């Protein structure tokens, strides 16, 4: 029987490797969130657009993305797309998969945020002859952002916690590195625990930041002087 | 009679199963000030909202400034108006709303300069100079850097008027602009409109429940009921000697005569 003991020396030895892998995890999350916000906003606007065909197509596309597992989407992008001549690195694949998958979720958040802005704001904008684009950019979105912050933040944290799925396409993120360390040293306790603790720390920090950003955000919306 | 600046011809408008206008006809001459009075749900506000293109129509024609509002000529036939056409038509119209609809995330000054800068392409300097003049006109020069939520209802509505005027419309639509105000704040808003009517030439169309104001300011008063003009005429005639029973009943209820 193997006796499980916590080995601090081993912890200090592997910590630098895991922290360096944390950079990959954070980078994937950061780029993934930027893409998700962009995709989410485009989906949300298209679903409110004038073309009924586009609204229906976007709706079913979103349903499809949200109703199939992220891992299958990751595999598809990484193993199937090369057959169509599109090969991407694990990081690029991961960022696209996370960004599009969570973009589909965020579009619902953005849509309800946009719809939460008083209808009178649209009417005043039209009476002032502003274009739809200017109305979104200057009037509607600045007021819609604040109510969107908590849900958007939660999805980004959820995305962060899903980055280990990218280990399946050999991205050297935290869990993948911990697994390699474990198999090389026949010790899994410390690496996996460290990864878990780091995820916990980052998630708590992110949750606190989101709360802080929301509180600091003006109630009337993003100020335009 | 000269060419009217606004003309409704046989206009149809429905909301679901509710018919608002069924063959509605109406005309307004240039620089005429017309008050529309009548019970709620009679289509008064819908009339203004259709003119401002906030609501479409289900039939008929509307002319504004000699051009069809909701239709345009295309290869010799009338087709539904394009965005570009609506954009051009809206340029003549300005609207002030019952609930102000100011932009809460913008200063008073930015509320007024936003559209002239974006739509008319004015420079910030030009737009701000015009905003300052307009704020002086409505007596709010000291509030340029305030936010709408820091203003009283009356002040908000005066900003609403300045914002509409900044686009230099030739037709001003006022939709129950004092209905959401505390009684003691009504006069400061009406004073602004009084001065406008006196000093500038505007076509003004106002939906109002302020009977004394309507009587004082209007060239013509229209009494609306069930999507029709039941009676119209000079304010003295309507207010002192209404002919129709429905007009009488309405005015009695309102003025306690």
Give me some keywords for this one:
heterodimer, A: 225 residues, mainly alpha, MetI-like fold, 8 helices, 76% helix, flat, B: 257 residues, alpha/beta, 6-stranded mixed sheet, 4-stranded antiparallel sheet, 9 helices, 36% helix, Ectoine/hydroxyectoine ABC transporter ATP-binding protein EhuA (chain B), membrane (chain B), ATP binding (chain B), nucleotide-binding (chain B), ABC_transporter-like_ATP-bd (chain B)
Describe what you observe in this structure.
The complex is a heterodimer of chains A (225) and B (257). Chain A is mainly alpha-helical. Chain A has a single domain, classed as Orthogonal Bundle (MetI-like fold). In chain A, 76% of the residues lie in helices and 0% in strands. The longest helix of chain A is centred in the N-terminal third of the chain and has 39 residues. The model of chain A has no long low-confidence stretch (mean pLDDT 94). In chain B, 36% of the residues lie in helices and 26% in strands. By secondary structure, chain B is an alpha/beta fold. Chain B is globular. In chain B, the strands form three sheets. A six-stranded mixed sheet of chain B has the order 8-9-10-3-11-12, sandwiched between helices. In chain B, strands 2-1-4-5 form a four-stranded antiparallel sheet, with no helix packed on it. Chain B is built from nine helices and twelve strands. In chain B, β6 and β7 form a beta hairpin. The two termini of chain B are 36 Å apart.
